[in-house]
Design goal:
It contains nine helices and nine strands. The protein is an alpha+beta fold and about 240 residues long. The longest helix has 16 residues. It has two domains: about 130 residues, Rossmann fold, CATH 3.40.50.10670; about 80 residues. It is about 45% helix and about 20% strand. The relative contact order is 0.12.
Length: about 240
């Protein structure tokens, strides 16, 4: 199935509603419009970052300072030159960035960049029409606020998955990863050990380090840890 912009909508909607926002789609040409405690937030969705998305975001700044663009989580990670250039541009334009992990069963939503207060003059009439449209479609009690989380990169998610595998089975070998169909990138994560979450018990066999045990208790990783714990508990019980 080819990727569609609508694939981004549901995970973001759930994320915003969990944060206490009243969310609607396709409001006055905005892909997503949300309100919390009188503050309007707008998100424009695209399958990839491009100039059309930038133009849309700039147009939405006449409605609110809280303008985000949303794209799928990048496959190459966030050290890629293209990614860094995109972040630099969005910062200059005072536009926020959200990514959705469409490459993961969890569909994790991350607020990568918060928008800054824009100097763009606001159109009060358009603001009022937008808010009225949202309120007239649906009324909900607004609570809480949006908070910055640790970014769940694909590499970090695979590392957490490995922690959950080791936690469930006690230890893991490269051979066992191969039998599980996870040798490739997963064995390289064990060997590079970027986060120091793993420790080599003997040749080709790894366990969790104290830092890895701490990672499984990190609040920002709760949903990811719960998902993979449940998955590998079922695997073990088979």
């Amino acid at each position: 199935m080819s990727l569609k912009e609508t694939d981004l909508y549901e995970p973001i909607k759930i994320f915003l509603e969990d944060e206490g926002y009243e969310v609607q789609a396709e409001v006055k040409h905005c892909d997503i419009a949300a309100i919390k405690e009188g503050q309007t937030l707008i998100i424009e969705l695209k399958k990839s970052f491009n100039l059309k998305l930038v133009y849309q975001a700039l147009e939405r700044q006449s409605l609110t300072d809280q303008v985000f663009v949303a794209i799928p989580r990048p496959e190459k990670g966030q050290r890629d030159r293209t990614w860094k250039d995109m972040i630099r541009l969005l910062k200059r334009l005072e536009v926020g960035l959200i990514t959705v992990a469409l490459d993961s069963p969890l569909k994790t939503v991350d607020v990568v960049l918060e928008p800054a207060d824009s100097m763009v003059r606001k159109n009060r009439k358009k603001q009022e029409r937008l808010q009225a449209e949202i309120h007239n479609r649906h009324v909900a009690e607004n609570v809480g606020g949006m908070t910055r989380r640790k970014i769940m990169t694909a590499y970090r998610e695979r590392s957490i998955e490995l922690c959950c595998i080791i936690e469930e089975f006690g230890k893991i070998s490269v051979k066992e990863l191969r039998l599980m169909g996870k040798e490739g990138k997963y064995s390289s994560i064990l060997q590079s050990n970027v986060y120091q979450w793993f420790e080599r018990l003997e040749k080709g066999i790894y366990g969790l380090s104290p830092l890895g045990e701490d990672a499984l208790r990190t609040v920002d990783y709760d949903k990811v840890v719960s998902f993979y714990r449940s998955l590998y508990r079922k695997e073990k019980d088979k």
